[in-house]
């Protein structure tokens, strides 16, 4: 993932490109330094703008959704970012392949929840416990596994206990992610029954 709610990578890229471009123009192309500097400045400003990360909830009709709902969703997501980043980092620190894969799966599910909440801020309340409790706890448990695993003589039973908890956390993650999908389906079952009733009335089957 690497970019949960956007970052300042555009400034870094723009700075690197400018740092390379100015000397090339000034020395390799023989351009006067002040002209190269001006061009570099323009390129820097352009890249900062073009590569700027998309803002949270960009493109949504905030007035229609409600500023309060959007503010609540923003607070939940921003508060959950540190735990998500810790979980992602820890997945790379774990050497046990099966456990590392499970932690990466947790990261993928968390990212999916982030995307869904950003798309539908009104759904944030349904995953509040996930974002404020399960995600931080998952990061703590994964970090504990990495610490135990790094010992010269790891406690096998401790590792198995942590693995068992990660399995249950994975179930909880899936539960909350699928809950968001179920909410999007809304009245599907009712709609299907009404359609079937209409078809039976009109077509006799």
Walk me through the structure.
This protein has 205 residues and is an all-alpha fold. It has two domains: 9-50; 75-190, Single alpha-helices involved in coiled-coils or other helix-helix interfaces (Up-down Bundle), CATH 1.20.5. It has helices spanning 9-28, 33-50, 62-65, 67-93, 97-119, 128-149, 156-185, 188-203. Helix 4 (67-93) packs antiparallel against helix 5 (97-119) and helix 5 (97-119) packs parallel to helix 7. The longest helix has 30 residues, at 156-185. The mean pLDDT is 85.
CATH architecture of the largest domain: Up-down Bundle
Q: What is the fold-level CATH name, i.e. the topology of the largest domain? A: Single alpha-helices involved in coiled-coils or other helix-helix interfaces
Helical/strand content category: mainly alpha
As a percent range, the share of helical residues equals over 70%
Largest sheet: none
**What coarse outline follows from CA principal-axis ratios?**
flat
Structural domain tally: 2
CATH C-level class of the largest domain is Mainly Alpha
Pfam families: Halogen_Hydrol
Transmembrane segments: 9-27, 33-52
Keywords: Membrane, Transmembrane, Transmembrane helix
InterPro entries: ChloroindolylP_hydrolase (IPR018770)
């Amino acid at each position: 993932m690497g970019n949960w709610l956007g970052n300042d990578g555009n400034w870094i890229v723009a700075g690197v490109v400018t740092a390379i471009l100015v000397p090339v123009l000034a020395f390799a192309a023989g351009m006067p330094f002040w002209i190269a500097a001006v061009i570099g400045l323009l390129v820097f400003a352009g890249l900062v703008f073009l590569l700027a990360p998309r803002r949270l909830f960009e493109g949504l009709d905030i007035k229609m959704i409600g500023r309060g709902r959007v503010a609540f969703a923003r607070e939940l997501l921003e508060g959950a970012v540190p735990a998500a980043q810790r979980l992602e980092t820890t997945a790379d620190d774990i050497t046990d392949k099966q456990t590392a894969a499970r932690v990466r799966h947790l990261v993928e599910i968390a990212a999916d929840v982030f995307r869904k909440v950003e798309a539908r801020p009104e759904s944030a309340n349904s995953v509040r416990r996930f974002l404020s409790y399960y995600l931080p706890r998952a990061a703590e448990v994964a970090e504990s596994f990495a610490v135990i695993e790094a010992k010269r003589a790891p406690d096998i039973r401790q590792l198995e206990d942590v693995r068992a908890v990660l399995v249950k956390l994975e179930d909880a993650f899936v539960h909350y992610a699928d809950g968001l999908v179920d909410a999007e389906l809304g009245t599907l079952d009712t709609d299907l029954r009404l359609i079937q009733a209409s078809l039976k009335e009109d077509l006799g089957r």
